[in-house]
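User: My advisor asked me to double-check a structure prediction for Coronin before group meeting. I don't want to rely on an old file, so could you generate it fresh from this sequence?
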Amino acid sequence: MATTSWSSGRLSGRMGEKGEKRKGGRGPPAISASGRRRESLEGRTNMREKEAEQTQAACLDLKGKEGGGWMFAEGPQCLCVDAGKMSWRPTYRSSKFRNVYGKVGNREHCFDGFPITKNVHDNHFCAVNSKFLAVVTESAGGGSFIVVPVSQSGRLDSHCPKVCGHQGNVLDIKWNPFFENIIASCSEDTSVRVWEIPEGGLRRNMTEAVLELYGHSRRVGVIEWHPTSSGILFSAGYDYKILIWNLEIGEPVKMIDCHTDVILSMSFNTDGSLLATSCKDKKLRVIEPRSGAVLQQASCKNHRVNRVVFLGNMKRLVTTGVSRWNTRQIALWDQEDLSMPIVEEDIDGLSGLLFPFYDADTHMLYLAGKGDGNIRYFEITTEKPYFQYLTEFRSPAPQKGLGVMPKHGLDVGACEVFRFYKLVTLKGLIEPISMIVPRRSDTYQEDIYPMTAGTEPALTASEWLSGINRDPVLISLKEGYQQPNQLAFKAPVKEKKSMVVNGIDLLENVPPRTENELLRVFFRQQDELRRLKEELTTKDVRIRQLELELNNLKNVSPNNV
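Assistant: Sure, here is a fresh prediction for Coronin from the sequence you gave:
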């Protein structure tokens, strides 16, 4: 006869023969469903313990031969074997930025009532520095943008003055990193213009630019300032060419024509000695800008590149694009070998363009999708997994573009490491979004604020063109930023050039390229003709009056004179 014992509702003994009953009594009660589940769970646990004992014995045998411990890693968890102990535990990389969070500015710190442009060109349409905020606006009869002091938040006046000198839509604007009152703009009218904003902002509409630069045969889509030289500006047009402008003389000094399609983006390394470009021909290029030589080139078939950015002094590039399955992804490249990306990582399946923003001081990469409401951020490392995902900022309002505040304009006391200015077209709103590292101490946090690039240029335009390379002049944010000296931007004094063909000045009258431009030119000419006809009519009346007066004088007798 078999013996039975019951503990916690579980049969722990054995029965003899199948169906055997105790003498003089009933058989064992049926086991409940919860008891069967517990028994199955304990069986699986026993199997895992046996497997662990076998693995431990094998590792101890290896340890006895070699001496030491091992860690077998696979995925987010790892198996640690050391001195006869084995444990499963998750491993996390220690990072001071893993708790960074995004904070949207209060309503009184937002900018409201901006007629943000509805142009579908893939640019940010926003530029910001420590003094001013500039936003491309919707306008008729040419392109314009609004410039307001960054401290004057709130609702925009409906009669706010604009910068409205372009004859076509404005496609890109960028502040000079060394002269905070100088801003460059490019437009569909094939021109690049440099403007000087007065202290305190605009008081009336500005139509006269400091410099008007003509050299492209088609519209200009992208402009970039050189990171270390004070007078060098790059422009990329739809004529597949990049022009390097020397603003000290107001002339182009170099043309880079190695592209076979529209240039989508440009990015410089830290000292400005290398230029990376992404192109619509699905190629990524690293160029020596002074000579125009292509040092590296990648044909991106599986990863169609849209945007590229240099990772500071890490000798790496990050690109955003679309995979062969039409999913958004990012890729990491070695700038000295573009034959194959180091790593590719899929982001999601949305269709909006991904804009990358890299902070060289914190080694953080921010990804913001056009039309999305979220901003993902990663920490870049030189070892695997390279992209360390931190978290993401979520918002229900879609973004059309983002402006980035320079480092010397951040709030160091609040541990702010990055600040975006988000364009919300549907609301006409511009929201500041601060990326903050949570710290309890109120003292200056030196570990998150290393020496950073300031507003003092390291080179003049002529020095850079002669072949000299220098790193940016660094400043500390500990005592608050103070500009070392007040530099003044001096535009060259040039005689106005003209190119007259059949009595038409081609530089003054840029031929229209679209139907809308043609209609604007037509109606402008009709208004001019109407005004001239009225002026002729007025002059005819005046001529007749003078003729009558002259006849009267002739008919007067000499005695009455």
